[in-house]
Amino acid sequence: xxxxxxxxxxxxxxxxxxxxxxxxxxxxxxxxxxxxxxxxxxxxxxxxxxxxxxxxxxxxxxxxxxxxxxxxxxxxxxxxxxxxxxxxxxxxxxxxxxxxxxxxxxxxxxxxxxxxxxxxxxxxxxxxxxxxxxxxxxxxxxxxxxxxxxxxxxxxxxxxxxxxxxxxxxxxxxxxxxxxxxxxxxxxxxxxxxxxxxxxxxxxxxxxxxxxxxxxxxxxxxxxxxxxxxxxxxxxxxxxxxxxxxxxxxxxxxxxxxxxxxxxxxxxxxxxxxxxxxxxxxxxxxxxxxxxxxxxxxxxxxxxxxxxxxxxxxxxxxx
Length: 319
Fold this sequence. Notes:
Layout: H1 2-18, H2 20-42, H3 53-75, H4 77-89, H5 96-110, H6 112-124, H7 126-132, H8 150-153, H9 170-206, H10 211-248, H11 255-264, H12 272-277, E1 285-287, E2 290-292, H13 295-305, H14 308-314
Antiparallel strand pairs: 1-2
Helix pairs in contact: 2-6, 3-5, 3-6, 3-7, 6-9, 7-9, 10-11, 13-14
């Protein structure tokens, strides 16, 4: 039973690693839907006042979307790879096509949550109804008194605030505004789907790799990143332990720490030049027909050859 559980866990882990971007974007979208729904249920309160409705309604749609977008930009590793590239190498090897590809990746992943929030807001219709209610033209509603102004129309998102003589028009006005909101939401969904389809087509057509090799590259990047992070954490802990031991004469670590110290013995500091060589933007490259899947892969290849001059030249290349 234990072996079966272990094998199933490994299978699930491999699946998630191979589909990391899709799964991650899906989780972000689901989290955004839950957040938007909870906000509408527990926090959304239209002021039902002329001059305030449109500001509150548009802010309810736009401000969270902007916050999600900025958070997505900050949490995207490619953002800081691009910043490092410009800081370390002044972007001198970053061509227009490479910059467009990197920015497209950053923005593409960062807009998932903002677009989800905006679409769900429009499909539910509460924020749009609040924002646009005061701009409804009374003359377009059959039988509606023509002497009513924006102050009265702004009260329609709050049914209890509508004058009794106008209560009969609440369903029609609310239905009209929700129709407009949902129509815009579905058009936005259609536009997003079309754009994603065209971008995927462009990516597949312009990629130098076949589908299987590109899938392998994705898995390689995921595994390299996981192994690098885990090894870096252990290396930093071992180096810290050595420094603490040199100061105090002993290290009060856990059994795991002692086992790692006994296994690895020593952790040498890594020079800044090598850190800089494996940091920054990277696009696919080959050497004598053999793929170089990352900056670390490239650094390792040239290190094995002990070709410092070629390394200095090639480590600046992006494509």
